[in-house]
């Protein structure tokens, strides 16, 4: 953590390229794995990872650890935004109408296990890509990033209960949509 903050300060003060390179290397594999779980192929995941780090380095002067969010949280927010933007632009080319009404409780554990199957996950992601950005962020951060609801709520600056409601409503919608895969 101290090393991370020293690197950030060097980048903020003097634009130190070596510090930027070291900081990127600290998180590159983690963010790539996060993107790869969502992206349709490794090339897209590499592009999204690169876009996320470019955005981080362009805006790092505004990062302030005193404002509460740790660097890792801030990095994931940017990465998630890049991912959502990518899939939103793809969904705009192929609009779908979705309804989140009339949902029923489901077994989250069973659903999460099925997500591990790549084919099923790709279909689910294609469906989620057409959803509003805030719902996509919650889904991606929880499923692909392993973030808690509390962490997501803090990052998105909304109540934890709202995060949970949107997440479980989405899971119920996905269960209905993909019931043929059971």
Characterise this structure.
- By secondary structure, this protein is mainly α.
- The protein has two domains: 1-95, Rna Polymerase Sigma Factor, Chain: A (Orthogonal Bundle); 99-182, Winged helix-like DNA-binding domain superfamily/Winged helix DNA-binding domain (Arc Repressor Mutant, subunit A, Orthogonal Bundle), CATH 1.10.10.
- The chain has nine helices and no strands.
- Helix 3 (42-59) packs across helix 4 (71-93) and helix 4 (71-93) crosses helix 7.
Q: Name the shape in a single word.
A: globular
Q: How many DSSP E strands?
A: 0
What proportion strand? under 5%
Percentage of residues in helical conformation? over 70%
Q: What's the CATH class of the largest domain, please?
A: Mainly Alpha
CATH fold type of the largest domain: Rna Polymerase Sigma Factor, Chain: A
**Residue windows where pLDDT falls under 50 for at least 5 positions:** 94-103
Radius of gyration: 17 Å
Number of domains: 2
The residue-averaged pLDDT reads: 82
Helical run tally: 9
Major sheet summary line: none
Structural class: mainly alpha
The appropriate CATH architecture of the largest domain is Orthogonal Bundle
Helix/strand order = HHHHHHHHH
Task: Give the termini separation.
Answer: 44 Å
CATH superfamily of the largest domain: RNA polymerase sigma factor, region 2, helix turn helix motif
The gist of it:
The chain has helices spanning 2-14, 17-36, 42-59, 71-93, 108-115, 118-128, 133-144, 149-156, 160-177.
Q: How would you summarize the topology of this molecule?
A:
Layout: H1 2-14, H2 17-36, H3 42-59, H4 71-93, H5 108-115, H6 118-128, H7 133-144, H8 149-156, H9 160-177
């Amino acid at each position: 953590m101290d090393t991370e903050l020293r690197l950030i300060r060097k980048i903020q003060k003097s634009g130190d390229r070596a510090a930027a390179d070291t900081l990127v290397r600290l998180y590159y594999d983690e963010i790539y794995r996060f993107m790869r779980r969502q992206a349709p192929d490794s090339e897209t995941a590499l592009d999204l990872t690169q876009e996320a780090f470019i955005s981080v380095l362009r805006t790092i002067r505004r990062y302030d650890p005193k404002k509460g969010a740790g660097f890792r949280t801030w990095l994931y927010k940017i990465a998630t935004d890049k991912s959502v933007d990518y899939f939103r632009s793809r969904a705009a080319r192929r609009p779908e109408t979705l309804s989140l009404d009339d949902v029923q409780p489901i077994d989250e554990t069973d659903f999460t296990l099925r997500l591990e199957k790549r084919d099923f996950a790709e279909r689910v992601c294609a469906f989620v890509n057409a959803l509003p950005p805030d719902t996509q962020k919650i889904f991606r951060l929880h499923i692909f990033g392993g973030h808690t609801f509390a962490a997501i709520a803090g990052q998105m600056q909304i109540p934890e209960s709202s995060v949970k409601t949107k997440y479980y409503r989405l899971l119920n919608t996905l269960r209905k949509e993909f019931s043929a895969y059971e």
